[in-house]
Batch of 4 targets.
Target 1
Amino acid sequence: MFTTVDGAPLRPDYLTGRFRRLVAASGQPPIRLHDLRHGAATLALAARTDLKVVQAMLGHASIVLTADTYVSVLPEVAHEAARETARLVLNAASALGRQLSG
């Protein structure tokens, strides 16, 4: 929540308009204020923040909503998960003294 100096809440339309003007003045491509929320969640997940923490950060009542909305956003996150899973399997095989072919 954003407030004025005296603590009164800012009107959402004021904040949206102000944000649009700042983006336009920056010369960056247009982005909605709400897109910053999605960007923050996506970056948090890319940084390996636990999904439960991201859920709390966004205020979602259900972790399913958070997972359905954000987990598949970054392909590199999925690739990293696949690499880590393969690493665990190979380490386990090595510990058992077995070599996996592939």
Target 2
Amino acid sequence: MKIYTKTGDSGETSLFGGTRVPKSNERIEAYGTVDELNSFVGLATSYELSDAGTKYLRKVQELLFTLGADLATPPSSQTRIDRISEDDVSFLEDAIDELEKDLETLKNFILPGGSQPGATLHVARTICRRAERATVACSKSDNISENCIKFLNRLSDFLFVVARYENKHAAVREETWKPDK
């Protein structure tokens, strides 16, 4: 099987279930941004991570594939796929709670950055927020599964915490934001 099909040459693509839509469709923007996010999470995993970071981020990558499929498949489709669930949101909440046990409570905003994995995870967090905005926009004009937005909202929190955790693991001090007055 060839990697190219030529079916998108006219600027359209297929959703799961076969419906053709323009590549500029809000649903395509949402799951395309999720794909970009998954790639940045993969970049973060290419660096030396803590055992906890590796474990959680690999699971997150799997869940991002599920999320992408969920967004690519309208709930009304007869295509059977796994969808993001409340359990997936709970997984992120539990991971946040576990990682935060080892972190100092924040009293100030911190500057995104730090170690290579930490800085990359901060970039992933901002891409996650963009994916969330695209998914919210999609939900205003199209029907999406109810847990997609909740999952992305929690995921950005998780990515912030795991970035902090990896910076601590790498013994890189967080820089606080000190606005000029």
Target 3
Amino acid sequence: MALRVPKAELPADLRENMIRQFGSVPENVEVLWNSPALARDNVEFGGKVGAWNAADTSLKSFAHMAVAAQIGCSWCLDAGYFQAQNDDLDLAKASQVPRWRTSDVFTPLERDVMGYAEAMSNTPPTVTDEQYASLLERLGPAAMVELTAYIAYVNLATRANVANGVASQGFSESCEIPLAKIPGKSGAASTA
């Protein structure tokens, strides 16, 4: 996939900050910088979303990657693996998210969260009352509404990346874990 809009030049301080955080500048930030106000707001809101702490970090990470795999956002999967490593999450599990239905490494709760993330990502959404109630009972109201808002934000980010032509940049190469292929989507999880 090729970028559908040219990258914009970032201010030097932002560019340096991104390189410190990620090792290189994320292309989605450079693309969004075509509208600096939008890009600033997106980075700020993304930081706030990342700071929410009512829901378990692993569950949110798996939900994010499940959405990315379903939508086909290779950049999001790539960054998700990188972030999972930085958050000291279970990398063996993270590597299996694109094939969570056939992998035996996930708990029932993790599977239900990834199923919920996919149901929220369907168009139209296919979340059922039973699915929501089951997660609400196990997570509690604060974590459930946070997880729901988090998945909604991830849908915004993944869909924008795919529409703008942003693809994997190889962030996950530092993870040293084998990346699972998305069943039925040839190479979509690849970071090459």
Target 4
Amino acid sequence: MTFKTADLFDDSGDRVRVCDPIFRDFGGHARFCGPIATVKCFEDNSLVKAVLGEPGEGRVLVVDAGGSLRCAMLGDLIAASAVEHGWRGVLLFGCVRDTVELAGMALGVKALAANPRKSEKRGEGQRDIPVSFAGVCFRPGDHIYCDEDGILVSVEALEV
């Protein structure tokens, strides 16, 4: 991918929403983009695992995990499944684990922090709904653009 979020912002202005700069890069790709799919869950990654086990078709999963720092919602096994199923990336308002392995995968992963504690498995959560965090509302079907400088969201696909 050859886009830069700074250039996309300069070209798009008010047509894009910019996330607060609170995320760290954990995946093998710092630069990734695609249509958004969403999950909302709290300290239970059952739905994250299920969605990333479905065909990704170049999408990016945006996970509202409530900003919890108490457990990881994504680790190496689920991330490997995401790669296998064609997901481009994951934006996680929560934590990851297995960071060394994530860094070696062909997947973009942005999250708040790392935590070795695994999440619960209660089968709870919602998918394909608007979620809001980091000053932005993410809607299924919107487009997300992530790189080392930040994260932009647009209703329409931008030319990259």
